[in-house]
Model the fold of this input.
Amino acid sequence: MQMDELVALCKRRGFLFQSSEIYGGLNGFWDYGPLGVLLKRNVKDAWWHDMVTSHNEMVRDAGAPGTYDMTGLDCTIIMHPQVWKCSGHYDLFHDYMVDCRESKKRYRYDHVKGRWVTGKKHGTDGEPAVEMKVFITTMETEGTQEALQAEAAHFFGLRKKDLESLVWEGPVMAISELDSLENVVGPDAKHPGTLTEPREFNLMFKTTIGALGGEDDVAFLRPETAQGIFVNFKNVCDSTRVKVPVGIAQIGKSFRNEITPRNFTFRSREFEQMEIEFFCHPSESADWYRYWRDRRFNWYTSLGLASDKLRLREHEKAELAHYSVGTADIEYAFPFLPEGDYGELEGVAHRGDFDLRSHMEGKLVREGDQLVLEKGPDGQPKHRGSGKDLTYFDDQRKERFVPHVIEPSSGADRATLAFLCEAYTIDQVPTAEKKEDASRTYMKFHPRLAPIKAAVFPLVKKDGMPEMATEIYSELKKSFAVQYDEKGAVGRRYRRQDEIGTPFCITVDGQSVEDGTVTLRDRDTLEQVRVKRDELLTELKQRLHLS
Ligand code: ATP
Done:
């Protein structure tokens, strides 16, 4: 599938628009259109339903080490600045970036990849060719040898057939692995050595609280929803009857001033997260980690992500965050990535007691296998915690402890994008319905995610058909999202619904008015069956997995 075809469909049919498009757009910000908002809401509702509301704390889930509680929160986007100091985001949540003096573009230091190459650079105006050894680069997601060949051809002024004269050395690597950027040709530059030394860049958006707006009033837009859950752990335990092990879920907006937002909504500056912080006894945390890792992976497949494009990748020890005992990423082979590459949909992390202890004691750092308070130059704690007791007393074990945390953290926008990519289908099989129009494009959404569940058409605009069709439309609309369409040939109307992924179309024809049956057409199989009008709602609910 070509990504630009999907992007065009998303705009044409009202799934996604660039934010502030009439003013030229704003990089890294996206608006969900009339269908996109329904799709994303369905993704979030499916998550909340499956993780929170349908959870039964008295029944052990398959594969779970025991029974557990599950509840939810909705916290603010702006929190006390101390939260980010203790969580580590204030000091650590940064990326390195390099600027290109020639192209005026900015890149993430670890995203620019390239390879050493020697060749003859042809001068303009007939100047003699000069032999040069340079590090040719491209952006990470296009970091294949083919992309580098194209960049090298451009740099050395070679035609395709002369590329064999180039001598490549060493593996493809990130510029962050090089000792110097002196001979590096930036991804959009024509000369070597135009990249600046890397500089740190904090990814949190800053704002000020109140009218005076001094340094003391600086606050941050949250870069993750998780911290709201940690700082409310005690409130939840004290105000409800939940007991550890307990999962607290939250869906909400997060903001990161990403240096290079790209790949449609995959890396945005404003996005939504769906996070669970699962609190448990330290002795059981490894089992709970495995449980959540597998459960979250299976959630995506249950909603239609094909298992050959989805993978679970355990992090290597060296890749783990400083507090983490184990982390796995759930990744999807997005079509904008090079063959064989995967992008993160969700991270499932075993975070130990790092978060609760940080909010009690202050910012922690690892020393060997211990977490200790980070000290400033004056020997005092660098960032003080709340000083509140966030331990938990387990009355069955008769033990007080700091719970360990397992965090399945997913992005609602990345999940929605994966479901859009997966759904995009071009069907070449000619059928009786399609006749001359042999290829059709349709969005094969899982019925739970489809923005519109059914469409109702009168075959023609007369003989009582529109009246009966509008009645059916009004009846069904009480239960789920339905569209009514009487414009154009019925084949065209089917195509319009296929393109937005509506699983079922109901047509009222001459026979319907006589015997009270309608045709029900299936988006994927194109099969049509006659259904009695008074059995239609039950039949649809069953087919849509709603009953
Ligand atoms: P990446 O390495 O891709 O930047 P991350 O490891 O920083 O992601 P987390 O901090 O683990 O991401 O955030 C949890 C989830 O939030 C991610 O798996 C992703 O689905 C989502 N997410 C994070 N950053 C973005 C973003 N810039 N745009 C859209 N979704 C995001």
About this structure: The mean pLDDT is 92. The chain has 14 helices and 29 strands. The domain at 3-93+205-305+389-394+401-419 is CATH 3.30.930.10 (BirA Bifunctional Protein; domain 2). Residues 224, 256, 258, 267-268, 271, 273, 344-347, 409-411, 413-414 surround adenosine-5'-triphosphate (CB under 6 Å).
